[in-house]
Amino acid sequence: KIATNMSARPLHIVTPCKHSRPISKTSGFEVWMKLENCQPSGSFKTRGIGHMCLKNKDSPRFVCSSGGNAGLAAAYAGKQLGVPVTIFVPLTTTNLVIEKLKDEGADVVRGGAAWDECNQNALKFVEESGSVYIPPFEHPLIWEGNSSVIAELDSRPDLVICSVGGGGLMCGVVEGLKKRNWDNVPVLAVETHGANSLYQAVQAGKQVTLPAITSIAITLGAKTIGKQAFELTKTHPIIPCLVSDEDVVKTISSFLDDEKILVEPACAASIAVLYNGKLKQLVASNPLLANVKKVVLIVCGGSGVTIDMLNGWKEKFNV
Prior knowledge:
Elements: E1 17-19, H1 21-27, E2 30-35, H2 45-55, E3 62-65, H3 69-81, E4 85-90, H4 95-103, E5 107-112, H5 115-129, E6 132-133, H6 140-146, H7 148-151, E7 159-163, H8 168-179, E8 187-192, H9 197-204, H10 227-232, E9 238-243, H11 245-259, H12 265-275, H13 278-285, E10 294-299, H14 307-317
Helix pairs in contact: 2-3, 2-6, 6-8, 11-12, 11-14
C-alpha cells in the first residue's frame, strides 16, 4: 500500500514523446509518438482510471467492467492503494489478459458476451455490494485524468491522432487541449470497421448501438459510444476515421519493425492512418486539416497481444 504521504501522487507516469523518423518518412508528416504503452498497466488507462481510483482511495472495493486494459489499470490502482478489486470481463477477453488481472490481485468475473452486457452485471454487483464503480471511459474524473496526456506535450501540435473505443481517451484529449487553449487543434478519432460506434453516431446524428463487435480490435468494443464523446463532436474539430482489420494487422507488423514496439489492434488502428495513406487523403480533402504538419500520435498501448496472436492475424488476413 502507498504510504500516506505518497497517496496524493498520480499513479501514472510521464511518458516519452518520441519523434518517429520511420513513420514520418512513410507518412510525409512530422510524427511524434506519445508512448502510453509505457504506463504501469500497459496503456493510457492508468491515467484516467488511476486518477478516479485515487479520488476514491478509501473505498471498500473497486469494481470495473472491462475487455482488458481498463481492468488492468483498475487492478493496478487497487493494488497500489490497498483496495480490493473485482473486474467483470466480456467472454471475448483472452486468457492472457485474465491471467494478468489475476497477477495484479484482482477477482475476475466473466460477465457478458460484450462489454455492454458485462457492464450491466458490474453495476448490479456494485449496487448489491456497496462497492465503488470505476467505469472504463464515461466519467469526468476519467477524462480529467486522461487530459494529462496533453498537459505533458512540449509544444502545440497541428493534429492529435487517437483510437476510439468508448471515447474516454478522446474526451481526455479534448479536455487537455482546452486546458492549454489549443481549442482549434483537430483530433483524428480512429476506429475499425466492425467497432465503429462513434463513426456511425456522427453519421446518424445520434448515439447508435452496434448489433455486435465484429472487428479483431475487441478492446475498441463498446457497442455504443459514450455520451460525452458524441457531444464533443458537435463542439470540437473531431474527424472520425475508419481503417480495416487488414490494415491494422499490417500496421502492427510494420510498427514492430520500425519502433520495436508490439501493440494490440485497438492501438494500431490510430497508427494505421499514417502507414496506409489515409491521413494524406484526409489532409487533401478536409479543410480542417489543410495546415497539418506536426502530428502527435497517441500510442495508447494495450496488453492483449502476443507474437503468436500477430502471426495468427497475419495468416487470417494473408498479409
